[in-house]
Amino acid sequence: MDISFDEDMLGPDGADNRPAEPPNSLDLNGAHPQRKKLSAPEINLSLDQSEGSILSDDNLDTPDDLDINVDDLDTPDEADSLDFTGHGNELEWEEEQATKEDEPKEEAEPIPEYTAEEERQDARLWRTVVIGEQEHRIDMKSIEPYQKVISHGGYYGDGLNAIIVFAACFLPDSSQADYHYVMENLFLFVISTLELMVAEDYMIVYLNGATPRRKMPGLGWIKKCYQMIDRRLRKNLKSFIIVHPSWFIRTILAITRPFISSKFSSKIKYVNSLAELGELIPMEYVHIPESIIKYEDESSIKRYTCMRLDEELKEAAEFNKVDKNVPQSKS
């Protein structure tokens, strides 16, 4: 490729002698300096090995001073190799971290919203009560199986004289792990329910039958109940009837006499059967658990058996007495 000047267009002083052409654009910045054209050197770009080609032997010859002796080269020692390896691991670790950051992250599961129905259910699991001017919270879920321990048995006499029924057979078993926690909440439930049920005078019917020893409340629990009962409730209590009393409950009441008033002790009455209870109070709205009815039937059978045995023993004793008094004839 050959590029040369057009000598005819240049004058002796180097000025451009070409005829002026009409401008095809408006010069806004004034006159522009003229550009000079330079000729490029001749370059042969052919791929053969002819003279002047880039692939010719002259261009491929390596000078003698560029000979490299491999034995004279310095190689990295072991320490340098370890350092380099360490830096390489760091770079790889950084690349892995960058790759992990670029990867799409799994979205965390959203926390489920607390619905209004769940909020109402949760509110029913806890009850706030005020006992003795002190606020308490009752875990209603823990005492759910034992809430039948106290019930309203209607009224007696004139006015709103309530009958409160306490069925000991519904108490929790003392062998369970959370017994003390349940009894604590059950105690608050009984006291707060008692205050809601009682308007005027009232009586308590304590159903002791069909209650094994492991379900009997301890002395401390009974003492705490008595001490936390409001003064109004103590004063308005007219009678405390114990149905089917056992020797254990009689012993407990005998032990508790020192810390209870003599007036309260005078209100305690023992009833051996449901028939006797029916002679004292109206039984129309008194709920008797099935276990106590069964216990009553079994007790009646035992009582009848004992009475029948006593009668037979008395008859046998009288017969022997009469037989001894009859004179025997001489043979």
Please tag this protein with its features.
331 residues, alpha/beta, 5-stranded mixed β-sheet, 7 strands, 40% helix, disordered N terminus
Helix and strand content put the structural class at alpha/beta
Number of strand elements = 7
Order of helices and strands: HHHEEEEHEHHEHHEHH
Main pleated sheet: 5 strands, mixed
Low-confidence stretches: 1-8, 82-86
> Treating each run of at least 4 consecutive H or I residues as one helix, how many helices?
10
Shape label = elongated
Strand fraction: 5-15%
Q: Kindly report the average pLDDT value.
A: 74
Percent helix among the residues? Answer: 25-40%
Q: Oligomer, anyone? A: single chain
Strand order of the largest sheet: 3-4-5-6-7
- Termini, distance in Å? 180 Å
What integer value in Å does the Rg equal? Answer: 57 Å
Question: In short, what is this structure?
Answer:
By secondary structure, the chain is of the alpha/beta class.
Task: Note down, in words, how this protein is organized.
The chain is built from 10 helices and 7 strands. With 331 residues, the protein is of the alpha/beta class. Helix 4 (179-197) links the parallel strand 4 (162-167) and strand 5 (202-207). The chain is elongated. It starts with 56 loop residues before the first helix and ends in a 6-residue tail after the last helix. Mean pLDDT is 74; it is low at 1-8 and 82-86.
Q: Secondary-structure blueprint of this entry?
A:
Blueprint: H1 57-60, H2 78-102, H3 116-125, E1 126-131, E2 134-139, E3 150-155, E4 162-167, H4 179-197, E5 202-207, H5 219-228, H6 231-236, E6 237-243, H7 247-256, H8 262-266, E7 268-271, H9 274-280, H10 290-325
Parallel strand pairs: 4-5, 5-6, 6-7
Antiparallel strand pairs: 1-2, 3-4
